[in-house]
Amino acid sequence: MRPLTIIGNWKMNGSLAANQQMLETLLTQGTQTLESRCHDLPIRVGLCVPYPYLPQAHHLLKNTKVALGAQDVSDHPNGAFTGDVSATMLQELGCAYVIVGHSERRQYHQENDTLVARKAKAALQAHMTPIICVGETEKEYEEGKTLVVVRRQLQAVIDLLQGQIASCIIAYEPVWAIGTGKVPTPAGAQEVHRELRLQLATFDAEAAAKVAILYGGSLKADNAKELLAMPDIDGGLVGGASLDAHEFLALCQAGI
Ligand code: PEP
Question: What is the pLDDT of residue 39?
Fold first, then answer.
């Protein structure tokens, strides 16, 4: 059995004051939810915040049930890469997770499958869990290319990481569902998750049974229950709904 995993992605949002309020509310109002168990396993909750807020969030979240994460990482260990942030730096700032290959990075920063795989490897080398995003665009969805696209994206990671894939989290995020209010049907999302798990299984059956595959894209408290009840949907990667402590907690609750 895999633990229910809910990871928030604040994207480029927040302020020192708003973050403090959100995190304090989350921790004071969420004690019971955050300590819940699902399938007899403790739930895993994390928040991926913008780089400048990592020290603040680390300070507020340390020794709590909410893990810290970042939204991107360099594939290089150090050196002349102005503006980039290494995995070791993130690990030093308390990150347990880092998102790689988010569609906004793929779209606005031209990140390709190979680079995404290298970023995942860098995260693992620094003892963090990469959350590797895959997903098709609206055009690809309409052309019936969903499985071709997500399989290609996942295969690049399997090829580079090999056995280390067992230590990763995969997030299926249809690009057309991100921030749009549109969501696939639970059965439609389940089919993609199942195919991703089968692909993992052709490489390593044990890893496939262990790897959490999260759904992301307009996930909210009021649509989470049915999606999170699907057998191969192990949790959610949550954008907009992770900015509000009450909504985020309600969403976690919906999966329990
Ligand atoms: C995301 O940014 O990963 C995401 C899923 O966003 P939203 O929940 O806002 O669609």
Answer: 87
